[in-house]
Predict the 3D structure of the following.
Amino acid sequence: MPRLPEFLILGFGNAVQKAREELKVLIVLVSKQHHNDDQS
């Protein structure tokens, strides 16, 4: 396995972190919508 350049590893880590944060926001929005559907 060839070693990856440092900037590639850091960039990938940042991308994963951003994706996780966006996923959390999406999950919160979706769960809120589900709660609203249940009430109506």
Summary: The chain has one helix and no strands.
